[in-house]
Each structure stands twice: as C-alpha cells, then as structure tokens.
Amino acid sequence: MTKQSTPGDRPRYRISADRQSAYRRVRYVESSHPDDGQCTLCQLDKLAEREQIEQQDPTANSADQKPTDR
After folding, report:
1. What is the pTM of this model?
2. Domain-located, residue 2
3. Is residue 16 part of a domain?
4. Which of 34, 46, 29, 47 is nearest to 8 (CA)?
5. How far apart are CA 51 and CA 45, in angstroms?
6. What is the C-alpha separation between 65 and 52, in angstroms, rounded?
7. What pLDDT digit, counting tens, does each position of 10-52 carry?
8. Which of 10, 12, 46, 56 has its CA 20 to 30 A from that of 28?
9. Using CB atoms within 10 A of its CB, is residue 34 exposed (0-12), middle (13-18) or buried (19+)?
10. Where is this region: Disordered (predicted)?
11. What is the domain count for the chain?
12. CB burial class (10 A; 0-12, 13-18, 19+) of residue 39?
C-alpha cells in the first residue's frame, strides 16, 4: 500500500536537483494561501478583530459565562 501525498505534506522549500554543482540552490516558497485552503493571514485578521470586539464590549462573550445571582 502506498501513501498518497496530500498538498499539505509538501515542504515550503525546494532544492534544485543539479547534483553536479558544488552548491545546492534552495528556493523558499511562501504564500498567504496555503495548499490546504486555510489562509493564515486571514485567520490572524479574524483573531485580531475578535479581540477588538471583546475589548470594546466585554459582555459580547457572555454566552460562555455562568449567570451570577444578584
């Protein structure tokens, strides 16, 4: 049985296959939209927006808190 390679298994760098050369060329591959469909930059933006909302309105996350008896 062979394991199928998924796009997320690929490294973010590539090395040239020229084995006769005295050096190996490394090329760094980076994008804001990874192969698995999860944009890291977008996730960070959403987290920052959520933190700003929670700081402005601390009761916005009250669904997770237990009610208090007053």
Report:
1. 0.29
2. no
3. no
4. 34
5. 10
6. 19
7. 556 565 566 677 766 666 666 555 555 466 666 777 788 888 8
8. 46
9. middle
10. 49-70
11. 1
12. middle
